Amino acid sequence: MATGKRYVRFDWLIIFIYIALVAMGWINIYSASLSDSAKGYFDFDQIYGKQMIWIGLSAILIIFVLAIESKFYERFASVIYIASLVLLLGLFIFGRTIAGTTAWYDFGGFSIQPSEFAKAATALALAKYVSDIQTNMEEVRHQVGAFIILALPVVLIIMQPDPGSVLVYAAFVFPLYREGLHGVYLLLGLFAVVLFVSTLAFGAVWVALAILLIAALVFYKNRKKRPSIMKYVLVVAGCIAFAFSVSYIFNNVFKQHHRDRFNIVLGKEVDARGIGYNTHQSEIAIANGGWLGKGWTQGTQTKGNFVPEQHTDYIFSTVGEEWGFVGSMVVILLFVGLITRIVYKAEKQKNQFGRVYGYSVAAILFLHFFVNIGMVTGIFPTVGIPLPFFSYGGSALWGFTILLFIFVKLDGANFHYS
Amino acid sequence: MRKIVLIVLVLFSGALFAARLFYLQVYGTPQGLKQNSAVKVVYDYPQRGYMFDRNMQLMVSNQPSYDVMVIPKDVKPLDTLEFCSLLKITKAEFKNILHKARMYSPRLPSVVIPQLNKADYASLSEKMYKYEGFYIQRRSLREYQVHHSANVLGYIGEVNNSIIEKNPYYQMGDLIGMQGAESEYESVLRGIKGVKYIQKDRFNRDLGPYKDGIYDTLPERGHDIQLTIDARLQKYGKELMVNKHGGIVALEPSSGEILALVTAPSYDPSLLVGRDRSKNFTKLWYDTINKPLYDRGLMGEYPPGSPFKTLTGLIALQEGVIGVDERINCPGGYYYNGRRLMACHGAHGPIAMVHGIAASCNTYFATLYRRIIDKYPTPQEGTDHWKAHLSSFGLGNFLGYDLPSGKRGYIPDAEFYNRWYQYPKYNWYSTATISNSIGQGEVLLTPIQMANFTAAIANRGYYYTPHIIKNIIGPDTIPKKYTEKHLTTIEPQHFEPVIKGMREVYTQGTASFIQIPGIEICGKTGTAENFTKIDGKRVQLTDHSIFVAFAPMDNPKIAIAVFVENGYWGSRWAGRIAGLMIEKYLRGEITRTDMEKYVLEGSLEDEYAKPYSGKPFTINR
Which of A222, A298, A394, B611 has the greatest number of C-beta atoms within 10 Å? Predict the structure, then answer.
């Protein structure tokens, strides 16, 4: 690799974790999709065989991504971003509809999901915008600019409609916060989530009462500072209005299947046969694993296809059943290790573009990791998004691979510049 | 702060997931999550053992039964008309069945036609290939080669929850022996079921053996058993008891083997097999007049009447309170202080043991009874001694035979009379309990207990526990308790005069008109008063007819007790039946065809209808 002084040093730890996750993913996809008609490991009619092709092609993709000059990504970020928007737009004309969602281009034998690539494109565009010398995230005008960059793909994906993929764009709040977005946005978001969930769990009336009580307590505690009553009344009124509007939206805007998903996680409806079936079966499979699991391809729930979509979104339940607590923890630790390593490396970037992009990668991976495993273990509502590198699917694997290896390239080149 | 928020969240999520996984997988798996719905246990049922009679004549075997099954999802368009004609149902019925099956489950098998007979099966099976989604499932049912002995053989039925709780071998839907030999020898007959673990998918379809069958076991066939019952004798007994209520118990004295155990009315065991099982069972269960499920030979407790006098005689001899030739005067009743305590059927004058039995003299045995009790300082001690002798004949308690139903009978003791007469506030003496001497009083025996003491007399002082198991084929054993000799408390020499008396019953006594030429039968007639309640009032019914006998006198081969409800005097029905049974068993044919005709054609149905008629009626006619 080294020719004279020009050499590039990639972060081998990230690459190693990537290879480990992809390999473990394939092993579990093999087990989850094994059927009687399978003819060996290299049967390309089988799901695991196809995944092997995707993995093989990913290797080629990695070479391309790493071979391209790192400056290219920064310079052509806007072009890549616009191209991905065009691809998303094109879906409304050429797209193929599966299960009510128009998210795929069909190429005969296989299909491509552009929303998986849009994440990397958006991350590049955002990094480019934020790292611009004129951009200051503390200014509202630039906040709006960043918001528009995020909003375009979000709107296009919502229209597919694919709410799960949209959720991922919430991840970009982390790089923006890192670059100076006021913490209030983060806290507001968190508070909104808490308010949202507790309104659904306990009802708007109780939440309103609780808010009044808390406000009264805070007011009483701060009475010596002579707080403005108007401020308190406004905040309290705002919160209560939010709670009631959540209640209204939940009951009148959400579709029944959205309501069901929330109710299951909130423990309101225990319905093992109906809508909660996926989560319930997934929990059974994981619980059956015990300490060490049942062994590869020995998972009875996995073999019996009790968990729907087990090779895609629910792949982690196979890990739970066949590799037990120990195997599951290995996967968890690999993800935690990978994401923290990316954040660590992002902080080390010499230029802001690399840092913003790195944070975006870490945040996107984190959101997928959190939502997916939260869903499979039954602590988060059912949102259909894949587990990065693990779940079956060519577009997702390629999307994540490109996303990650652009950062590996930026990071490696960064080293080179120093 | 800005640099660490994401890191903190990532670490927090990792910890959250670790905790959740630990909770799910290791620590407190929530109830209901550990159930393994993916591996199904399928049992492979072995053939149930056959039952043979003592001459190895097959009594109970198994029959295949064929159910036509359907998996609705797999059904392909078919020639409905042809298929319906093969199944012998109409097109409408067929559509209805198929609809129900689909409603139950499109993927799981449902029964289309249960329990086809062999002929239908044969014609159908060669055409089954045409009808995809349909198949024939073989099951095993009991097949009865005889139409009698339901009380001995028992039946099999599905286990209930309490059985499953007590015995983990059984699963819902398993069959278990109920009643009779099926129940008693359940563990021998059933064999051991095999287990197959099948991997299932979420539609509950088979995916093949779990872990290639390493945990699977093969079924083990049940053992055949040979019963002590003589099927011919049993059949004959059933025929003799037609139109009568009662029981016959015949034993082989030298072994305790039960040769015949007849209860009437009974039922054909085949009624409890196949499609109409539950309908028939309900019918039998609710027949409270004939009580066909009630084994009168084992469950009926009756005052034994005169046959009990033989025991009074034996105890008196053993206690030394009478000499064999000592005569006691019978003035036509037993008098005490000038008051007649008990009447006798005729004034026998001075009478001794042998003739006393033959003439069934009440006075003689009442005297003996008082002498036995009064030999001891108090009537309490005397009564307990008397009871001890009777207990040694297996009376007053369960005999320990190998059938699941039975009664203890009753032999009163001192405590019973103390309570009865409120001792020590009031005293009681042997005169108060004197009815026991002639088998009336408080004594109650079951027919099999009567047969057993008759066998002990025939053996001159010992008996074996009656049993129906002759051999468990394979291990070739029977439980040890059936080969242990039980000695009575009466010494052998005391039996001879009593046996002589029982012989004289036939030669010149109450059974002389029912002798069987060429067979030396010893017997004793009996008549027992009995009562019922009609509209809350105690009403006396016609006496029960009782007879005990054994033959031949020397080297006895059969001991028998016959009991005919409301049959009036002993030799009228019970005596005739006992004689015919003995001849049938010893000779294999009947010489007293006149007697046979009388019994076969006779009916007591009018007698049994009386208490239900609602009209006044006369008895003992």
Answer: A394
Confirm if A116 and A58 have CB atoms less than 8 A apart.
Answer: no
Provide the residue type at B306 as one letter.
Answer: S
Annotate B7-65 with three-state secondary structure. Answer: HHHHHHHHHHHHHHHHHHHHCCCCCCCCCCCCEEEEEECCCCCCEECCCCCEEEEEEEE
* Least CB–CB distance from A320: residue in B2, B13, B25: B25
B7 to chain A, any CB pair closer than 8 A? The answer is yes
Indicate the helix (H) or strand (E) that contains A215: helix A204-221
| Pairing status of strand B246-252 against strand B257-264 | antiparallel
Question: B522-534 and B537-551: which strand pairing?
Answer: antiparallel
**Secondary structure (DSSP) of B104-128:** H-SSS-EEEEEEE-HHHHHHHHTTG
CB contact under 8 A, A178 and B35: no
Of B343, B525, B369, the residue nearest B437 (C-alpha): B369
CA B228 to each of CA B232, B259, B482: distance values in angstroms, whole numbers, following the listed order: 12, 6, 12
Cis geometry, peptide bond prior to residue B552 (ω within 30 degrees of 0): yes
Task: Tell if the CB–CB gap between A373 and B38 is shorter than 8 Å.
Answer: no
B26 closest CB neighbour out of A290, A335, A370: A290
Poorest-pLDDT segment among A112-121, B151-160, B482-491? B151-160
Report chain B residues whose CB lies below 8 A from the CB of A377: 17, 20-21, 24
Cβ-nearest to B37 among A283, A306, A340: A306
Question: Given CA atoms B357, B359, B360, B362 in this order, what sign does their dihedral have?
Answer: negative
Tokens (6 digits) for B284: 């039998």
How confident is residue B550, by pLDDT bands cut at 50, 70 and 90? Answer: very high
Q: Is B92 part of the contact surface with chain A (CB cutoff 8 Å)?
A: no
Query: Cβ contacts (< 8 Å) between A287 and chain B: which residues?
Result: 24-25, 29-30, 33-34
Instruction: Count Cα atoms within 13 angstroms, Cβ side, for A126.
Output: 34
pTM for this prediction: 0.61
Q: Which one of B6, B26, B207 has the shortest CB-CB distance to A304?
A: B207
A100/A108 Cα distance (integer angstroms): 20
pLDDT, one tens digit per residue, over B170-225 is 776 678 888 889 998 998 998 888 777 777 665 556 667 766 666 677 888 889 99
pLDDT in tens, B101-157: 888 777 777 778 777 777 778 888 888 888 888 887 777 788 898 988 888 898 888
Return the closest-CA partner of residue A122 out of A58, A165, A185.
A165
- B24 in contact with A, Cβ within 8 Å: yes
Contacts of B119 (CB under 8 A, 6+ apart): none
Q: Is B56 on the interface with A (CB under 8 A)?
A: no
Six token digits for residue B328: 């006691």
Return the structure tokens found at B304.
């034994």
Instruction: Report whether B248 contacts B564 (CB < 8 A).
Output: no
User: For residue A88, how far is the Cα from the chain centroid?
Assistant: 19
Q: Say if residue A265's pLDDT is above 60.
A: no
CB atoms within 10 A of CB B477: 10
Q: Measure CB to CB from residue A379 to each of B18, B20, B33 and give the nearest one.
A: B20
Find, in chain A, the residue whose alpha carbon is nearest to that of B26. A290
